[in-house]
């Protein structure tokens, strides 16, 4: 057994004694230490590293130094050479064990039920883990159905409830030939097999629970396309329970707010969405009618200038969309030119409309007036829109100079 990878022998050992044999200053400036033996898991195989403490120093990263065949424990704090006690973060280790074994199990169930093969995985005990699958070569689809995901999830949880043993052991290349591996190993020596009770055999160097029951449960969240693969998101164990608590609290709170049972939420929300949609349409019609009335009132109070009616109206932080609708109404009046402005304390919006018989070009009028505030815009001869940034004093000057040009 490699003294640097003792977790492979017993992942339940979380406290141990060792000799600190080397202190290092790493290339990125962090502090690293080397132990003569270690139960810490280093980042690798899609699984994140352990954390914990060595002496009084906090372990924040662990990785393999492949050149020297040793583990580098990245620490925050100082530790001296010699005998030392170490402790691994138990919850983090358990979360990763639950998710990693759940990934093996879910991979097996997806392959068994759908023929989809897992080609890579990312294990994380604090956010959803993922596995990337590819469809069978003979398959005409590039998607995975909700039903297939549910069936694979159900099968995985049944195996969890059966509390089957999870075994890990090393085999020689010769012994490997007799094992029905789900995928071939990436190494040619020190081949470690993770077996889920004669169901699934996979070469793996990660940490795993000792029995499937320790996973607790596995829940598939979604699947989405990632280039030529499908990415399946799932949670398990402690994290799945946390997510359930969060979702239940949210759903219960919503149900209480609506004075209904949580089971009725989908139906009630659907009805309310329909009602809201109808009200929004009604409001839109009323708003359009209101704007038509507003346009008539503005036109009725328009100034007369050389046979052309001139409307100048300014608004405080009025949505540009509303100004646009109002402008479209005013544009219909043949001999009318309108300047509609809105100012929110920083940004000026200007819309110019010119009736067909006005003899004016909205684009030219817009460009001339926006030059005062170094603004920009565009449009056509009948309606142009633009804006710029101005102080309150600049805006007042801008309004004062708005005219037929």
Question: What does this protein structure show overall?
Answer:
Helices cover 33% and strands 31% of the residues. It has 405 residues and is an alpha+beta fold. It folds into three domains: 83 residues, Elongation Factor Tu (Ef-tu), domain 3, CATH 2.40.30.130; 152 residues, Threonyl-trna Synthetase, Chain A, domain 2 (Threonyl-tRNA Synthetase, Chain A, domain 2); 116 residues, Diaminopimelate Epimerase, Chain A, domain 1 (Roll). A hairpin with a 4-residue loop joins strand 4 and strand 5. The longest helix has 36 residues.
In short:
With 405 residues, the chain is of the alpha+beta class. 33% of the residues lie in helices and 31% in strands. The radius of gyration is 34 Å and the shape is elongated.
Helix content: 25-40%
Indicate the CATH class of the largest domain.
Alpha Beta
Q: Please report which band the strand proportion falls in: under 5%, 5-15%, 15-25%, 25-35%, 35-45% or over 45%.
A: 25-35%
The total of beta strands comes to: 19
**What count of helical segments does DSSP give?**
8
Strand order within the widest beta sheet = 1-2-5-4-3-6
Largest sheet: 6 strands, antiparallel, barrel
**Which superfamily, in CATH terms, is the homologous superfamily of the largest domain?**
Threonyl-trna Synthetase, Chain A, domain 2
> How far do the termini sit from each other?
90 Å
CATH architecture of the largest domain: 2-Layer Sandwich
CATH topology name of the largest domain, in short, is Threonyl-tRNA Synthetase, Chain A, domain 2
Which outline best applies? elongated
Number of domains: 3
Q: Which regions contain 5 or more consecutive residues with pLDDT less than 50?
A: none
Average pLDDT, rounded to a whole number, is: 92
| SSE topology string | EEEEEEHEEHEHEEEEHHEEHEEHEEH
Radius of gyration: 34 Å
Structural class: alpha+beta
